[in-house]
Specification:
Length: about 70
């Protein structure tokens, strides 16, 4: 009977540890997903800005001609 009680206590401890690790992993996943969304937004913002700058350069080229003319 004592062995069964010890085994139960050990299983309870292991279960608590697994649950704690699961919570930590879920928290880490949430953090990484948030960072990924922020990184994707920054990448999109930079891409949009680069496109705007290229459009401005194209407009200046059309207005003043290419360099060396």
């Amino acid at each position: 009977m004592a062995a069964l009680l010890r085994r139960h206590a050990e299983m309870t401890r292991q279960n608590a540890e697994i649950r704690r690790r699961l919570v930590e992993r879920e928290r880490r996943i949430h953090t990484l997903e948030s960072q990924l969304r922020e990184g994707n937004q920054r990448r999109q913002d930079v891409g949009k800005r680069v496109e705007e700058l290229i459009a401005q350069l194209d407009q200046l080229d059309a207005q003043f001609g290419p360099p060396g003319d």
